[in-house]
Amino acid sequence: MTEQTMHKKIWLSLAHMSGEEQKYIQEAFDTNWVVPLGPNVDAFEQNLTEYLGENKHIVALSSGTAAIHLGLLQLGVSAGDEVICQSFTFSASANPIAYLGAKPVFVDSEPETWNISPYFLQQAIEERIKQSGKKPKAIIPVHLYGMPAQMDTIMEIATHYGIPVLEDAAEALGSTFNGQKCGTFGEFACLSFNGNKIITTSGGGALVCSTKQEAQKTKFYATQARDAAPHYQHSEIGYNYRMSNICAGIGRAMSLS
């Protein structure tokens, strides 16, 4: 082994371009679709929807963190609530909980999957019910580094207690558990398309929704919650979370390759 090979770096996550990205980016410029909507966004969302299946509806957003935020918002998480997430994860799994004034309840992971332990999950739920008299508002399991969590057992526990699941599948697009794609188990799931993810849009994410109504509500909140009026009218608090048509061009190409 030479000194040169000993010092060669092997990158953990490196973006691989398909060769078609520039084509869709150029189309955005040529047609002046440089806003957070347009043909690339629509096509990228459709590609993801067709890939995941399970009758899911997908909304492209500015980040995976934004996706978790809007998912929790639609699950009714608010100040004073508690949301379970795993302790071994990136901070973006927990930050949106705090955005809403809720409290993250961290549950330890297991060595088999590196993800949330079903045993400790059930234990944490029982403890929260005993201490506060109410169950957690949601559960956020993470598929860390693309390794699926034990979703069959986790979903059984969630169903038993009537707690909705929001999957953090930011790193797991393409992974499956018992033949089912990660990101299709929960009521919601987040995907991430930052530069270190399975496919990238440079920066971006998506919320996987179970119903068309949830997807429409996601777009509403992500577009400043602007009401259907001939003037600027906002009856709810909204966010600037939509994905750029330029960035979506990168994802559109990568999701076809």
TrEMBL record:
The pathway noted for it is:
Bacterial outer membrane biogenesis; LPS O-antigen biosynthesis
Q: Which UniProt keywords apply?
A: Aminotransferase, Pyridoxal phosphate, Transferase
Q: Name one Pfam family in it.
A: DegT_DnrJ_EryC1
Q: Which cofactor does it need?
A: pyridoxal 5'-phosphate
Q: Which residues form a coiled coil?
A: none
Which EC class is the enzyme in? transferase
- Enumerate the catalysed reactions: GDP-alpha-D-perosamine + 2-oxoglutarate = GDP-4-dehydro-alpha-D-rhamnose + L-glutamate
Task: Tell me the Gene Ontology biological-process terms attached to this UniProt entry.
Answer: polysaccharide biosynthetic process
Quote the EC number. 2.6.1.102
Query: What does the similarity note say?
Result: Belongs to the DegT/DnrJ/EryC1 family.
Q: PANTHER family recorded for this chain?
A: DTDP-4-AMINO-4,6-DIDEOXYGALACTOSE TRANSAMINASE, TRANSAMINASE
Name the record gives this protein: GDP-perosamine synthase
Natural source organism: Microbacter margulisiae
Taxonomy, top ranks, is:
Bacteria, Pseudomonadati, Bacteroidota, Bacteroidia, Bacteroidales
